[in-house]
Amino acid sequence: KPGMTIKELAETMGIRVVDALKSLIKMGEEPKTIQDELTIDIAELLVLEYGMHVKLPEGSESMKLDLRAPVVTIMGHVDHGKTTLLDYLRSTSVAAGEVGGITQSIAAFEVHRPKLGKICFIDTPGHQAFSSMRERGAKATDIIVLVIAAEDGVMPQTIEVIDHARAAQVPIIIAVNKCDLPGADPNMIYSQLMEHGVTVEPFGGDVQTVNISALRGQGIDKLEEAILLLAEMMDLRAPRDGPAEGFIIESRKDKALGPVASCVITLGALRVGDVVVAGADWGRVKVLRDAKGESVKFVGPSSVAEVVGFRSQPSAGQELFVVENDSKAESYTEKFGSRKGSMKRIQSSKQEEHQGELME
Ligand code: GTP
Ligand code: MG
Fold this sequence. Notes:
Family: Belongs to the TRAFAC class translation factor GTPase superfamily. Classic translation factor GTPase family. IF-2 subfamily.
Low-confidence stretches: 52-63, 343-360
Largest sheet: 6 strands, mixed
Subcellular location: Mitochondrion; Plastid, Chloroplast
GO molecular function: GTP binding; GTPase activity; translation initiation factor activity
Bound molecules: guanosine-5'-triphosphate, magnesium ion
Oligomer: single chain
Keywords: Chloroplast, GTP-binding, Initiation factor, Mitochondrion, Nucleotide-binding, Plastid, Protein biosynthesis, Transit peptide
Protein name: Translation initiation factor IF-2, mitochondrial
Number of strands: 16
């Protein structure tokens, strides 16, 4: 299919994204991210390669992958109440005894609702400057909750999120926030959204909306229900085992432990001892902590985890995957580094050209 990304092709072929990446690199390609679009030729080559070399284990085609919890990213214009919403969710999790250690990432955490299930939430900043972070966030997630403050309405970064979601083909749920304020008028927001092509349920469309007050904790249960309903319709599945894939949420340097990375695992299982790659950085997982901050041997899909063992600090938003050994990791990170290097060279030679022009 034209414009198919590496991830989509791998999923269609029923192979692991990591294997697709490896094959592409072997073929002399330089994939940057799993969202890179493939040309028909390359896609065909890849399929041929697998057609010839890979035999699926018996019965594997009929084997269904396990259901997994949704990974939900909270997005929206600056100050519309994203972090307040997550704080509320977190506080209810604290009350429910879910949040434990102090290592819990600021930007990502899990909620577990006894009857409903688990949701993995990720916060993003609304400030204009973080557009690329939002773009990556939109791609890495299953569902976007778009927070819109009732008194402010649809704003520039609201529209930006709508565009990112559309480009990444990720469904959104609208949370009209600050409904506790006098004069809050959700209907006005709905019509603004319709103008931007978001067909909301109250106006006969299919995009769910929930009116909330993050500050007072009103309507949040409805929001969780909407998320889980959508997740159920999406029938999200992932292998529970096998090499993990995910992405880095944030990383910091600990004086004693070295680089500590918060990440979300999207599929497979990450284990202590695994060799992980994230962009130009890699390492061997020495300590693994789950969403409660407890040290564990492995974490499964749709989970928040903290990884100690990276040799250098990976950057937020990088995709993370497991490779067989150190030398594989080195060759991946080198390739990543040299790509960056060559980009820089191109840029600087352009600058030089430009300077040359100026001097002439
Ligand atoms: P950025 O991360 O900077 O993009 O902002 P944000 O979307 O995370 O907004 P944040 O949660 O920091 O809230 C911004 C302000 O709005 C704070 O002063 C909150 O107290 C206030 N606020 C958030 N939710 C509500 C709400 O439901 N009602 C009212 N009245 N105020 C709210
Ligand atoms: Mg915030």
